[in-house]
């Protein structure tokens, strides 16, 4: 970056509505901290925006000063793209407004909102849109990469429910994108990962959900994993859209419904959510109990917002994280064999393999309707390496990489862009598949100088 004169920084600070942090300032370290403790980058400046006017000012300043620019929403991205070294970090985390139009069933969401912020506001009216599974995740990053969660089989990907965005592009202009306004930009924004500008407001379609629904966990011993995983794979091929079941292989956390003797032992768990009449859901999930002899279960009717936060304790910030991910059309015997092989040698008590069921409505959208194009993905596997100390780094990363390579022959095309780690720039074109060439054209039009490049980058030609 160009080294800034103090007078230049002071002038910017005087014109900016929010705080501007330099490395020696109180609040700097707190502002640069993000969810993944593997990321320890130090921006030259952090501009903490409180308004759209602040975003415009920050974009113009970063561009005019030829600075490296990163953008922080919720700060949850596994690759740590919210933070850059020696550049300008544009921090949106304080822009957390959510407005719900009950009559239109629409939500207008600020770029600093987390899933918890959005869910809380929408569920006051018994409404929701498909989001992720960890309530501390930022809505902005989740959405821009595609977004999926418990409601996706019934209501689609998060981007399938995006109606419009307000954005500040690289030239500092405020722009709206929708199906009728700048449709090329809207196409790219739905899955393009923040490559085209900074979204300052998202408009989402909402759906009646809950506020209470059937959800919970069934936990089986790992020595029954072959039976559980195989039957999970076949059961999920025909389940109705209202039902979603994810599979998790890990060491058992100290859940109150499990005997103490099970805590810390390897297990395979089914995480269940039924977005329909709970009584109908109870009948549908009854066969799951025959998959094995469970250690225990905790399944019942509870508020949707509670279920959205159920995994937060296992995904709290401050741990070291490294992910690898594949998409699958079908969980074949070979996929199951690899998952069980590596599930039997988890390198840390916090590591896990999860297989998310999507399909349903997510697969009924044309593959070229938007930048997110992996419409044949019925399952997304996340090899989630998670540990506590830097001494464990190499061992845990090698386990994740070896698992990824072993599963690669059985994966489908594309990849979920939000699960790509910082060292996977070579997979970006593969992740987008046939959409990539069109994305390059959108990038050339809206960010020809690649100002927004601290991301899973789409290079402008």
UniProtKB/TrEMBL annotation:
Signal peptide coordinates: none
Domain of life: Bacteria
Cofactor needs: FAD
Domain FAD-binding PCMH-type positions: 39-209
A molecular-function term among this protein's GO annotations: oxidoreductase activity
Keyword entries, A-Z: FAD, Flavoprotein, Oxidoreductase
Entries under SUPFAM superfamilies matching the protein: FAD-binding/transporter-associated domain-like
Gene3D superfamilies: 3.30.465.10, 3.40.462.20, Uridine Diphospho-n-acetylenolpyruvylglucosamine Reductase, domain 2 (3.30.43.10)
PANTHER family to which the protein is assigned, alphabetical: BINDING OXIDOREDUCTASE, PUTATIVE (AFU_ORTHOLOGUE AFUA_1G17690)-RELATED, FAD-BINDING PCMH-TYPE DOMAIN-CONTAINING PROTEIN
Entry's family note: Belongs to the oxygen-dependent FAD-linked oxidoreductase family.
Name of the protein in question: FAD-binding oxidoreductase
């Amino acid at each position: 970056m160009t080294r800034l004169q103090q007078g230049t920084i002071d002038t910017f600070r005087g014109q900016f509505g929010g705080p501007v942090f330099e490395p020696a300032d109180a609040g700097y370290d707190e502002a640069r901290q993000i969810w993944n403790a593997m990321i320890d980058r130090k921006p030259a400046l952090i501009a903490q925006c409180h308004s759209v006017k602040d975003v415009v000012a920050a974009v113009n300043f970063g561009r005019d000063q030829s600075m490296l620019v990163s953008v922080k929403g919720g700060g949850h991205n596994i690759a740590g793209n919210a933070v850059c070294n020696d550049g300008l970090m544009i921090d949106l985390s304080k822009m957390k407004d959510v407005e719900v139009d009950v009559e239109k069933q629409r939500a207008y969401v600020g770029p600093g909102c987390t899933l918890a912020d959005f869910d809380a506001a929408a569920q006051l009216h018994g409404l929701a849109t498909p989001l992720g599974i960890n309530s501390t995740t930022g809505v902005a990053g989740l959405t821009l990469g595609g977004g999926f969660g418990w409601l996706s089989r019934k209501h689609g990907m998060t981007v399938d429910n995006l109606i419009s965005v307000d954005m500040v592009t690289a030239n500092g202009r405020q722009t709206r994108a929708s199906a009728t306004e700048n449709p090329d930009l809207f196409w790219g924004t739905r899955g393009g990962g923040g490559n085209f500008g900074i979204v300052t407001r998202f408009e989402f379609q909402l759906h009646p959900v809950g506020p209470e629904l059937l959800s919970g966990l069934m936990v089986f011993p790992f020595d029954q994993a072959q039976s559980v995983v195989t039957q999970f794979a076949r059961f999920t091929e025909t389940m109705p859209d209202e039902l979603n079941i994810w599979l998790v292989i890990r060491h058992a956390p100290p859940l109150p419904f499990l005997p103490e003797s099970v805590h810390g032992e390897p297990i395979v768990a089914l995480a269940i959510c039924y977005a329909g009449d709970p009584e109908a859901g109870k009948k549908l999930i009854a066969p799951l109990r025959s998959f094995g002899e469970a250690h225990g279960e905790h399944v019942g009717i509870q508020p949707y917002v509670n279920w959205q936060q159920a995994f937060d304790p296992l995904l709290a910030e401050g741990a070291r994280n490294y992910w690898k991910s594949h998409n699958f059309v079908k969980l074949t015997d070979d996929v199951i064999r690899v998952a069980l092989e590596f599930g039997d040698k988890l390198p840390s008590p916090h590591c896990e393999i999860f297989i998310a069921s999507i399909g349903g409505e997510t697969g009924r959208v044309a593959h070229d309707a938007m930048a997110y194009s992996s419409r044949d993905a019925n399952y997304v596997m996340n090899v989630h390496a998670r540990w506590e100390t830097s001494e464990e780094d190499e061992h845990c990363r090698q386990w994740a990489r070896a698992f990824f390579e072993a599963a690669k022959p059985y994966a489908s095309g594309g990849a979920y862009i939000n699960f790509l780690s910082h060292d996977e720039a070579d997979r970006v074109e593969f992740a987008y598949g046939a959409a990539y060439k069109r994305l390059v054209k959108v990038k050339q039009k809206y960010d020809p100088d690649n100002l927004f490049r601290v991301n899973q980058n789409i290079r402008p030609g």
